[in-house]
Task: inverse folding
């Protein structure tokens, strides 16, 4: 029991620290691409703490308060069901009680809970943002899960542990053995991290209407915290599935950072898409590739 | 007198439960010419009898609130009798009698609603009669080949005969489950029926179509393999059935999103959910059949819960459109939780059992390597989040949009009791998915001669592709939720509730009661900008049938031009052909 | 790049002011100092582009002057913002929206008045429909004068504000809460019956704690 508790707190703490450092790096990276100095790497930590220390927070009824709590619980549950390390007793959380499909569904539990809070705030701009988010989800989930399903078919299991264990060395990484699955799911994966060019849902600075329009003070701090943790959980999941997992913490940081760098590079390079353009894009390019992948790897006998 | 009638009716609603618990041994009753009617409770029919046993009393309780209506009670009695007959029947004669009783009594019940119009009633009876006639044709065809009416494995049939049987029975049952494009009667009747009867239609009667479809593997013991061979790791017939199911699910989901009426939205969502079951039946592996049964169970519970809750809202406010409701969360909190639990089950979110059903079906599809079907199913189930959100946002969140919504009170206790029971059942099933597998689903699978799914413990759902632990998921989520809430409240800092619902950041403007702040009806309208969804929503099934008629007429017209307008021309043609035939025959010496 | 080594004119006065302020925060507890430090390091700005001063906000945020290196970044809605920048003259019609937005921000919150118009009306000193002195209506924490002040001056103002926050000096929102009746009376004098609704502030009367 004590093992579980220490392990859980280690995973949560690690996700949080990696989360704000990664986002801080992203802001630095973005600034340098735009020939600016940019803020400190710890800027996201400062922002988050500032919000958590706000002295005033307005709420619109009990459901509005519980929404951020639900999304936070969803994020922590996701973190605890993703195995962080391979062949280790530590940083496993409750991942033996779950599987890949469960994790994918856990990723959306929180945002849907928060959608209730947004609705109960009574601000129509917030609900517009939620609808945009659900629409984007509809677009990205199909190719995302199809890419992961190709991996599940390849290994004939939905267990993240088993998929990780099967990737023994670099040549057996799913990135190498099943590159088409990686290509199919990588863009939807970026969208699921709210990365540009698919970030019209939140659009933190410039679009008034978004799910967060009514959240303020400490509730906003909770939302920021869970977002950083969720990002790390998703990165670790993809590293587990495609980059062979990690046996040490340093390898884990290196692999997730490589994935994050890819996301950041795409984010800084492309202009933002509208919601329906996003959906249409996902249903044409990644899903089309996915169909080709299914035909090539599942239907035909040479595979 | 009134009270006695009501009590009698309540007792009557327990008859399926009584049948379920007290039935032992088969009953055979010889009819003329050596044909015997046989009745028995097989594991498969016991599963569906259980659904009926759960659903009937839960719908009867809120019905007791209304003025006692003897003729409606009598029709309900007939309906329950018909459905039990149908489930117990061991041969097609009993099955058909039950089917007809169910059809007619439900039709008469539908007619008793003041909202039913001619179109709704006609489409209901026409589609259901076609279904019944197809069933009749199928059973007579079966009798003409095998001299037997019993529902049992048929072997030694020609492939063509099997195909004919499969198509006749399949179409009959697909009409009942409302597969596209045979679903026209579903949204109309679910919408127009009395509010509580809609729950019965959606939760229980649609399951009879599923029961029928599950008889098909009984008739063809080798699954669907032998009907027309195999393709992509599975039977062709199953593949077609699965695509029918998933296209139904996808299109019905998008239609549901665009509805502005709560009951119509639920009707389309029923079509979509039953579409998943059809897909899983098409896969036909034991995992997928298990998933189909689980989904049937969850869908029954969820639709009972949602329709009863919505009936309560309609009773209290008199409104059924999203645009007329809003902000009932503070006035009808229990109903809010009812709809909340309902949509979590409907959307298939962990930790409620909707996820267990989805999980089994997904794994079934992955195991069969039918990934394109999987992608389509993911599309449908992700899109269902939008209508689920609309269903809870429209009535409960946002701003109240009508005087009735501003003053409504919680639904009467007769409505709340079934809701609370159903919520408890759903949560318990979500924590213990292995229990449902072990106790409810595995016996059916064994009865169908399939490998049971099996479970190591009641809180675990285990498959060959890995599983999950319901207690762990629920436990971790609840623990973190409680911890973070407590922590949040302990940290210093003020939190105060907005003094007015109009204290919104509204670009510096001050919204008032006249500002249109409720987004209920418009939600999902912008989805039309996505090309595929826009295309689907611009086309209707009525339009499809009209187009079919047009094309048929055009084709007939084209064939008509082959014949000249002058009768003498084709008289001459006939004589010539006759002469040529005669000549050829005489030349070849036949 | 702008270097903060020399001062001239108002900047010197400002520096003297800040030097005095920097010493006044020593009585804060450790946690309060930490909180104040986080607060000053992260300022979300609601830029209210009321007048021509709005034109100076864009270069402030973009590559040339890069306010993000001080932790200053734009916010979409008043709920998320810490700093309200009033950039230029305020027409009476706009004042109502400004008050509404300010009251919807969550404490601790600060106001920066940008340009001479917010101080004394500037070139609109005799206009019939602009207000002349912003801090009669909402509490201003920092003025940046000039017509127009350049982005460097604005950054100067932000940095001065950050020092005040770090020192824990009582800020405008506390003044507003304590003197709400005076502010409301002033607002009523120019707005007449066209006041923003009172539900955003009337809980201040209950001791400012709710």
Result:
């Amino acid at each position: 029991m004590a093992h579980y508790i220490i392990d859980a707190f280690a995973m949560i703490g690690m996700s949080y620290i990696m989360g704000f450092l990664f986002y801080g790096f992203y802001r630095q990276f973005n600034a340098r691409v735009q020939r600016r100095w940019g803020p400190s790497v710890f800027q996201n930590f400062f922002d988050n703490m500032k919000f958590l220390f706000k002295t005033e927070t307005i709420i619109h009824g009990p459901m509005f308060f519980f929404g951020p709590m639900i999304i936070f619980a969803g994020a922590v549950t996701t973190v605890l069901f993703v195995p962080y390390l391979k062949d280790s007793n530590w940083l496993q959380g409750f991942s033996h009680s779950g599987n890949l499909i469960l994790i994918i569904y856990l990723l959306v539990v929180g945002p849907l809970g928060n959608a209730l809070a947004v609705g109960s705030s009574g601000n129509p701009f917030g609900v517009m943002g939620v609808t945009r988010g659900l629409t984007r989800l509809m677009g990205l989930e199909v190719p995302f899960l199809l890419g992961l399903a190709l991996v599940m078919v390849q290994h004939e299991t939905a267990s993240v542990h088993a998929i990780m264990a099967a990737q023994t060395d670099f040549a057996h990484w799913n990135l190498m053995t099943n590159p088409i699955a990686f290509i199919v799911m990588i863009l939807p994966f970026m969208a699921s991290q709210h990365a540009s060019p698919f970030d019209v849902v939140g659009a933190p600075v410039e679009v008034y209407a978004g799910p967060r329009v009514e959240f303020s003070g400490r509730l906003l701090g909770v939302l920021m915290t869970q977002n950083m943790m969720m990002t790390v959980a998703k990165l670790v999941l993809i590293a587990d599935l495609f980059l062979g997992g990690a046996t040490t913490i340093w390898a884990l940081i290196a692999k997730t950072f490589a994935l994050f760098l890819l996301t950041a590079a795409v984010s800084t390079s492309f202009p933002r898409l509208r919601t329906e353009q996003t959906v249409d894009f996902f249903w044409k390019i990644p899903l089309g590739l996915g169909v080709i992948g299914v035909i090539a790897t599942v239907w035909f006998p040479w595979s | 007198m009134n009270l006695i009638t009501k009590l009698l009716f309540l007792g009557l609603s327990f008859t399926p439960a009584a049948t379920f618990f007290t039935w032992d041994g088969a009953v055979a009753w010889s009819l003329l010419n050596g044909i015997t009617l046989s009745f028995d409770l097989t594991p498969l029919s016991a599963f569906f009898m259980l659904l009926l046993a759960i659903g009937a009393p839960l719908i009867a309780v809120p019905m007791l609130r209304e003025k006692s209506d003897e003729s409606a009670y009598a029709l309900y009695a007939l309906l329950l009798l018909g459905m039990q007959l149908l489930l117990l029947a061991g041969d097609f004669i009993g099955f058909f009698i039950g089917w007809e009783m169910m059809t007619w009594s439900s039709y008469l019940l539908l007619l008793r609603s003041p909202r039913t119009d001619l179109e709704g009633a006609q489409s209901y009876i026409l589609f259901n009669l076609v279904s019944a006639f197809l069933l009749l044709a199928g059973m007579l065809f079966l009798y003409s080949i095998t001299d037997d009416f019993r529902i049992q494995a048929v072997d030694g049939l020609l492939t063509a005969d099997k195909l004919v049987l499969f198509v006749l029975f399949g179409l009959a049952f697909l009409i009942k489950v409302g597969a596209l494009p045979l679903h026209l009667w579903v949204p109309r009747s679910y919408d127009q029926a009395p509010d509580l009867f809609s729950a019965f239609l959606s939760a229980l009667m649609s399951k009879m179509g599923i029961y029928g479809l599950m008889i098909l593997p009984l008739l063809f013991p080798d699954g669907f393999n032998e009907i027309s061979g195999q393709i992509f790791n599975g039977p062709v017939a199953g593949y077609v059935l699965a695509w029918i199911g998933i296209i139904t699910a996808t299109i019905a989901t998008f239609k549901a999103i665009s509805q502005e009426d709560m009951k119509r939205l639920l009707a389309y969502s029923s079509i979509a959910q039953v579409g998943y079951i059809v897909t899983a039946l098409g896969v036909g592996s034991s995992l997928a059949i298990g998933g189909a049964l689980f989904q049937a169970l969850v869908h029954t519970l969820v639709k009972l819960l949602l329709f009863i809750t919505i009936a309560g809202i309609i009773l209290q406010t008199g409104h059924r459109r999203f645009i007329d409701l809003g902000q009932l969360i503070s006035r009808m909190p229990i109903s809010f939780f009812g709809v909340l639990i309902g949509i979590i089950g409907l959307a298939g979110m962990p930790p409620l059992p909707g996820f267990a059903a989805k999980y089994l079906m997904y794994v079934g599809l992955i195991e069969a390597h039918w990934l394109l079907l999987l992608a389509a199913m993911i599309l449908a189930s992700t899109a269902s989040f939008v209508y689920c959100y609309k269903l809870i946002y429209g009535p409960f969140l946002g701003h109240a949009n009508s005087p009735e919504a501003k003053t409504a009170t919680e639904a009467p206790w007769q409505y709340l009791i079934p809701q609370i029971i159903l919520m408890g059942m759903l949560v318990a099933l979500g924590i213990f998915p292995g229990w449902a597998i072990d106790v409810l689903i595995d016996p059916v699978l064994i009865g169908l001669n399939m490998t049971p799914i099996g479970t190591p413990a009641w809180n675990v759902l285990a498959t060959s592709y890995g599983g999950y632990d319901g207690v762990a998921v629920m436990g971790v989520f609840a623990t973190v939720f409680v911890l973070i809430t407590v922590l949040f409240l302990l940290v210093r800092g003020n939190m105060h509730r907005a003094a007015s619902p109009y204290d919104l950041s509204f670009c510096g403007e001050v919204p008032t009661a006249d500002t249109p702040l409720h987004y209920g009806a418009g939600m999902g309208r912008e989805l039309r900008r996505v090309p595929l969804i826009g295309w689907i929503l611009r086309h209707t099934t009525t339009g499809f049938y009209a187009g079919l008629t047009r094309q048929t007429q055009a084709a007939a017209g084209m064939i008509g031009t082959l014949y000249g307008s002058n009768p003498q021309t084709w008289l001459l043609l006939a004589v010539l052909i006759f002469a040529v035939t005669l000549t050829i025959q005489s030349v070849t010496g036949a | 790049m702008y270097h903060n080594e020399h001062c001239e004119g108002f900047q010197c006065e400002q520096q003297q002011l800040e030097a005095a302020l920097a010493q006044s925060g020593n009585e804060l507890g450790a946690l309060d100092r930490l909180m104040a430090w986080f607060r000053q390091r992260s300022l979300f700005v609601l830029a209210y582009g009321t007048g021509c001063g709005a034109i100076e906000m864009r270069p402030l945020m973009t590559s040339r002057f890069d306010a993000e290196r001080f932790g200053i970044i734009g916010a979409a809605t008043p709920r998320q913002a810490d700093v309200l920048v009033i950039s230029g003259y305020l027409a009476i019609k706009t004042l109502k929206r400004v008050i509404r937005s300010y009251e919807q921000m969550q404490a601790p919150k600060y106001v920066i008045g940008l340009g001479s118009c917010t101080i004394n009306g500037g070139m609109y000193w005799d206009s019939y429909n602009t207000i002349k002195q912003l801090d009669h209506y909402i509490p201003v924490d920092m003025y940046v004068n000039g017509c127009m002040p350049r982005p460097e001056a604005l950054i100067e103002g932000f940095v001065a504000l950050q020092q005040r926050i770090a020192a824990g000096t009582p800020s405008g929102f506390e003044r507003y809460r304590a003197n709400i009746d005076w502010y409301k009376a002033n607002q009523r004098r120019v707005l007449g019956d066209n006041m923003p609704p009172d539900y955003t502030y009337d809980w201040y009367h209950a001791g400012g704690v709710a």
Observations:
- Chain A touches chain C through 34 residues (CB under 8 Å).
- Chain A has a mean pLDDT of 90.
- Residues 104 and 235 of chain A are 13 Å apart (CA to CA).
